[in-house]
Specification:
about 210 residues, alpha/beta, TIM Barrel, eight-stranded parallel beta barrel, 10 helices, 8 strands, about 40% helix, globular, binds ligand 3NM, thiamine biosynthesis, transferase, thiamine-phosphate diphosphorylase activity
């Protein structure tokens, strides 16, 4: 399992309709064609869809992922993850505890966001499959993002957890992705670098 997870994190695209200046289905299809290795549906924040509209979009995006053999991971919404039978669920520090999510979803991929030592010390990592570490750089995509932690946070996590799949997040672009990998991450997760790209194929290629 671990080996496969390390690989899935390499180019991890995250988005919801609120992040997209164009049709999210078209953006995801272009990113999938270009070679992303995982997708997270994060319909959250200002302008995001709810209820039936959220579910319908999630279903369509999942279909695109399935046709490209890319895992479809749902952010935070356990109910939706269950209803769509998503491949995984990503949780933050303010969501349900990892232990409980693991009990509900014994076979799904579970990711957890970690931004600092305190969160690391209180998080039961044995219940999660990967860590989302960030924000590595400053980002304007997430309004409540914590202070940037730099690639040092990636190195620290890698040192403390040599075998744990780790993906960097926050302000990552083709210009700085290699520094995140060099620090020890298995991959990079990006929102705006792809949703706002003029040429998605070349961005994905350079991550
Ligand atoms: N989570 P962009 S930063 C969704 O630090 C998210 O946990 C973060 O967007 C964290 O690639 C972030 O456009 C936003 O900077 C990432």
């Amino acid at each position: 399992m671990n080996d496969k997870v390390h690989q899935l994190l390499r180019k991890y695209f995250i988005m919801g309709s609120q992040d997209c200046p164009r049709d999210p289905r078209v953006i995801l299809a272009e990113a999938a064609e270009a070679g992303i290795t995982a997708f997270q549906f994060r319909e959250k924040g200002k302008g995001s869809l709810e209820g039936d509209e959220k579910r319908a979009l999630g279903k369509e995006l999942q279909h695109i992922c399935r046709s490209h053999h890319i895992p479809f991971i749902v952010n935070d919404d356990l109910h939706l993850a269950n209803e769509l039978d998503a491949d995984g669920i990503h949780i933050g520090q303010n969501d349900k505890p990892a232990e409980e999510v693991r009990r509900l979803f014994p076979d799904k991929l579970i990711g957890l966001s970690l931004s600092n030592e305190e969160e690391l010390s209180t998080s039961p990592l044995s219940f999660v499959d990967y860590i989302g570490a960030g924000p590595v750089f400053s980002t304007s995509t997430k309004s409540d993002a914590k202070r940037p932690v730099g690639t040092e946070w990636i190195s620290t996590l890698r040192e403390k957890h040599p075998a744990m799949p780790i993906v960097g997040i926050g302000g990552i672009s083709p210009a700085n992705a290699s520094s995140v990998i060099k620090a020890g991450a298995d991959g990079v997760s990006v929102i705006s670098a792809i949703t706002r790209a003029d040429n998605i194929a070349s961005v994905v290629d350079c991550l």
